[in-house]
Amino acid sequence: MSAEINATAASLLGFLHDGPMTGWDLVARAEQTIGPFWSLTKSQVYRELAYMADHGLVTPGETGRRDAKPYTVTDAGRAAFAEWAARGPGEGTIRLPLLLFVTLGRHLQPGLLRSVLSEQRARQAELLKQYLGLRQVLGEREDTDPHVLATLEYGITVARATVRWIDRLPPEVGARETPHTRR
Amino acid sequence: MSAEINATAASLLGFLHDGPMTGWDLVARAEQTIGPFWSLTKSQVYRELAYMADHGLVTPGETGRRDAKPYTVTDAGRAAFAEWAARGPGEGTIRLPLLLFVTLGRHLQPGLLRSVLSEQRARQAELLKQYLGLRQVLGEREDTDPHVLATLEYGITVARATVRWIDRLPPEVGARETPHTRR
DNA sequence: TCATGCATGTAAGAGGTTACATGATTCG
DNA sequence: CGAATCATGTAACCTCTTACATGCATGA
């Protein structure tokens, strides 16, 4: 049994399966391939890399230009990754501030929820446009990993669903003092 | 300017706008009305209640049966809530382990991703069924807050979208060693 | 030479989870 | 009387964010 790792470390190990990378590379890679669904900061990355190096899951290579320190995944690292994967993705904690906002809409200043929703709609529509553009580009390349494309597809699906959800919200949502509030 | 509060405290304050509640009540209420999109634990609830009582945003009432201590929101509390609301919901950090899993699918044991996806599909379908039943029940009652209903509607929309997304995934997703992996 | 991008890290604090500990009340 | 539910809280730990600090390399 190898060292236990968390999902953050596992994501780094996963990326390292494609070859040695520096912390900086990893941040960029995560941002590009799964940014919208898996946030991580450089602080976390350097911490997890240090932890993993300590436990022999990765080995630092020679420092290249500009102090770049590439890490390579070891056999133990691959084993730890496989163990993490075998545990499955779990349910994960979901915290969507927008939904909290909507739920509490009854107690917000008149108009606030409405403006927040229209802003969100614009944001999601913009995101959708970007995703569609990206799909176009990636879809044309032959070396695109279908898994990455699938993630993108999820983004498209959800962005689209969110926009439609906002459009179909009843007019009472965002209105002040819905009947049942009175007591 | 009143004390700064975080989204967790704000959610509690929001719920308290409907009348005094104990920590226990708040946990239950959150679970019921927004559970799937806004997780919180009792540890957090008691911590935030203590903090807010300290800062005069809520006042504990007399201990009722079984040590139940109901909290009432104060004017300062309402002000703090309004300030939080004025800041808007922000973008929020999203971390969906399933999507990370899919992204890294190329490096998973053959079949693992496939089984994870089919399990997720079942889970989402089950969730969808529950949501639809709940909508039926809540929709018939006249005192249902349309905002709560709207949140539920989002759950339905996304669950449905997720199921369809899984159903439409190309066969390569979950398969071992897609062409571009070879180097 | 100066701004930008590459590159690594530390420190402090906020937020969130899990396990532990305790006790009252109700219902069967 | 015993199990389930109600009810509060603490302690330890993990994770994540933000701000700070440093320095090299490249290109305009």
Automatic annotation (TrEMBL), chains A, B:
Domain Transcription regulator PadR C-terminal: 95-168
Pfam families, alphabetized: PadR, Vir_act_alpha_C
Alphabetized InterPro entries for the sequence: Tscrpt_reg_PadR_C (IPR018309), Tscrpt_reg_PadR_N (IPR005149), WH-like_DNA-bd_sf (IPR036388), WH_DNA-bd_sf (IPR036390)
Transmembrane segment boundaries: none
Domain annotation Transcription regulator PadR N-terminal: ranges: 12-83
Domain of life: Bacteria
Protein's name according to its UniProt entry: PadR family transcriptional regulator
Organism annotation: Actinospica acidithermotolerans
Upper classification of the organism: Bacteria, Bacillati, Actinomycetota, Actinomycetes, Catenulisporales
